[in-house]
Queue: 2 jobs
Job 1
Amino acid sequence: MIHRVELSEQVQAQLSTYVRQTGQTEDEIIAEAIQKHLVDLEDIRDAEAVLNHPGQRWMLEEVERGLDLAG
C-alpha cells in the first residue's frame, strides 16, 4: 500500500542526513519508525488499560512470601 506523507523541511533534512549516514532508504527508515511508534502506542494502550482496571495488586513482600523468597 502506498501512502503520501508530507514532512516539514526540518524533518526532511534530518531524514536525508540519516539516509546518508546509514545507507538505508527513506522508505526503510520511515517504515521502521512507524512500526516502532505503533508498538509504543500499543504499550501505552495496554498500560492505560491496566491503570484504569488494575485488578489484584500485591506488595513485594507478599510476592516474596508466596515464592518463599523471604529469608
Note: The radius of gyration is 22 Å.
Job 2
Amino acid sequence: VPLLVGVERAESALKLAEILQLTGDIPRAQATAIDARELAVAAGDERMIARSDHSLAESARRQGRFDEAAQRLDDARRRFEAIGDEAGLATSLRVNGTVNAQRGNLAAAKANYEASLDIRERLGDVSGVAALTNNLGIVAQHEGDMDRARALGLRALELYTGLGERRWICSCLINLAWMDSQAGRNDEALAHGAEAVRLALEVGDRLNLAIAQNNMGDAFRDLGRLEEAGAAYGAAVEAYRDLGDTGPLMALLEDVAILAARRLQHQAALRLLGAADALRTALGSARPREAETALEDRLEASRAALGTRAARAARTTGRNLTAAEAIELALATASRAAAD
C-alpha cells in the first residue's frame, strides 16, 4: 500500500481492510478504509467512495454498531445506484440484510437478500448466489421453516464446494451445524462443526472459528457432554471478547445460560439471560419470536427453582452488568467457576 498513490492505493487499502476484518483486527481495518475513502474523495471516484463506505459498514457491523453500519450502507447503495454498479449494489444490499437479521428484522433482511439475489443471478455470479442462498437459509431457520433452511444451506454448500471457496464452505458448515443442533441432530452438528473449525483455522478466519466453537458447544450441551460444552463456549466467549464482536455474543450469553440451567446454576442462568437482554437492547436487536419461545422453555426449570421473585431479581442483576462483567460471568459459568 505505501508504494502506491491515488485510487490505486485506495484499491489495495480496501483489499487489506478485508483481510484485517477476516483476521479480526477491526480497528486497523477501519483506519485503513478511512484512508482509502479520503483518497477516493480526493480523486472524485464515486465507486471507490462507495466501496470504502461498504468496508466501514462491515467493520461497524462486526462491532455491533448497527446504526452506523446501516447509514454507511445506505450511502454506498445510493452511490452504486447512481453510477450503475450492480455488483456493488448487490453487495450493499446483502450486508444490509445481515444488519437487519442481526437486529431481528427478518422481513427486511429477507427483502434485502432477495433483491441482492436477483442481481447476482442476472450477473451470473455463482459465488454471490451461493452467499445469498446461505443467508436466506438462515432467515428460514429463524422463521421456523427447518426443511427449507436445510435445503438452502445444503445448496449453498454445494455451490461453494464447486467453486472451492474454503472460507465460505466454512460459513455454510457453521450454519448447517447450527441447523442440525436446533433440530436435535447433534452428532451431525458436531461433524459439521469440527470441519468448520478445521477450515477456519486453515483460512485464518477468527470470527468463523469462534462461531463454529459456539455451535459445537450447543451440540455438546444437548448431548449431555457438559464439560466439553463449557470448554467450547469458553473459547468462543474469549474470541468474541478479543474481536470486540458483540453481535454473536448476544446469542452466546443465552447459550451459556442454558448450560448453566442444565448444571443447576440457576442464578447464573437468569443473570446471563438478563445480560443478553441488556445487550440486545443496546444493539437494537430483538430476539426472533421462535428463539424467544425456545429460550423461555429451556430456562423454565431455573425460574421454577428460584421462584418468581428471585428469578426476576437475578435477571435484573444481569441486565445491570456491564459488557465486561457479562463476559466474565459467561467465562466463569462456562468453566463452572461461577458461584450460585
Note: DSSP finds 18 helices and no strands in the chain.
